[in-house]
Amino acid sequence: MSFTPFELEAWQSRYEHSVAHNLADSGCHPVGLGELLAHDPDAIGRLLAVDLNYPPVGGTDALRALIADWHTAAADNVLVTVGAAEANALTVATLVGPGDHVVVMEPGYRQVRGCALNAGADVDAFPLAPDHQWRPDLDALDRLVRPGTKLIAVTNPNNPVGTILTEPEIDAIIAAADRVGAWILADEVYRGTELLTDRITPTFWGRYDKTVCVGSLSKAFGLPGLRLGWLVAPPALVDATWRRHEYATISAGTLSMHLAETALAPATRDRLLTRNRTLVRDGCARLQNWVDDHKGLLSIIPPHATALAFVQYHLPRPSLEVADALRVHGSVLVGAGTQFGVEHHLRITHGLEAGYLDAALSSISRVLTGLA
Ligand SMILES: Cc1ncc(COP(=O)(O)O)c(C=O)c1O
C-alpha cells in the first residue's frame, strides 16, 4: 500500500536544528523548567521526589481531572497521550478504515489527512476561503459530506491561518456530521492563543455525541518538549483508543505527567496562558508591521489566534522553492504553503522573542528581495 509522508514534519525534522533561525515550529517561545516551577517554593522538592516508574497508562487521576476541566468534560472522557500527535493518530486508527470517507479542513495541519490516507480512506478537503477572510466554506462541506463519511476533522483555532470558528459555524459543522452520523475530530491545541480577545475559544466538547477533542501542552501552554497531549471522547472511544495507545507508546512519561499537573493547576495555567498570549500578540504586531513594509511583495489576512502567520508572497515561484531559498541563503526555516495544501504562502511563526524574530524577518526580507 502506498504511504503518504507527513511533509511538514519531515521538513522540520530534517532541517530545524541546522538553521540560525527556526520559524517553522508552531508554538511560542518555550517555557523553561525553572520558569514553570518558579512560583512554588516546594515544586523542586516534589519534582526530585518523583519515582521514575511507569505512570498510570491513561494518565494520572489528577491530570485527567485537570484536562477534563479544560474541556468541561469528566475525567473518564480523557486519555493522556504523547502529544496531540499521538491523540490524532490514535483517533484516526480507531475510527477510520479502508474505503471510509474523511473530510478535513484546508489549509490545515495535514496529520489527520495523511493518517486517513495511510489507513486507506478517501479524503476530501473543505476550504477555509481566502476570499472570505479564511472563513469556512460550509456549502462545500455540505456538498462533500455523504453517507459513508466517517470523520470530519477540524482544527479550531486553525493552523496555519488562525481562524476561530463562530458558534453558527460550529453548529453547521455539527449538523453536517449529524446528517450522516459522522464523528467530529476537533483539534483544539490552539485554544488559549487568542490574539484579539481574552475569551478562550469554546470547545466542541458537549455539543454532539460523536465528538473527539484533542489538545496538548505544546502551543497555548508553551511546553512542547514535555510531549504531553490528550484526547477527550466518550468513554467507549477512550477505551478503544487506549487499547491502541498500549501498542504505540504504552504511556506518556512520568516526569511529563508530573509537570503537566503543575502546568494545568489553575494558578499556573492562567500564568502560562497570559505569558504566551503576550508573546503571540507582540509577535503578531511585529509580523504585521513587517508585512506592511513589503507592500506588493507580501500580504496577510490577519489571524485571530495562534503563534502563526500564513503570509502570501506575490512571486511566481512554488512555496517549497521559496522556503528552500530562505533556508539555504537566509538560514531561516519556515513552513511552505504546499505543506498545508495552499500554494504561494509561507507559514511564519512569530510568537518568539523580539530580537530573534526581528533578525529572522530581516534575513527573510533579504532573500525574498533577491528572488523578486
Ligand atoms: C493542529 C496541530 N495538531 C497537533 C499538533 C501536534 O502537537 P503536539 O506537539 O502536541 O504533538 C500540531 C503541531 O504543530 C498542530 O499544529
Automatic annotation (TrEMBL):
EC number: 2.6.1.-
Domain of life: Bacteria
Gene3D superfamilies linked: Aspartate Aminotransferase, domain 1 (3.90.1150.10), Type I PLP-dependent aspartate aminotransferase-like (Major domain) (3.40.640.10)
Record key words, sorted: Aminotransferase, Transferase
The Aminotransferase class I/classII large domain, residue ranges: 53-364
Cofactor: pyridoxal 5'-phosphate
GO molecular function annotations of the record: pyridoxal phosphate binding; transaminase activity
Family statement: Belongs to the class-I pyridoxal-phosphate-dependent aminotransferase family.
Listed name of the protein: Aminotransferase
Organism from which the protein derives: Streptomyces auratus AGR0001
Phylogenetic classification of the source organism: Bacteria, Bacillati, Actinomycetota, Actinomycetes, Kitasatosporales
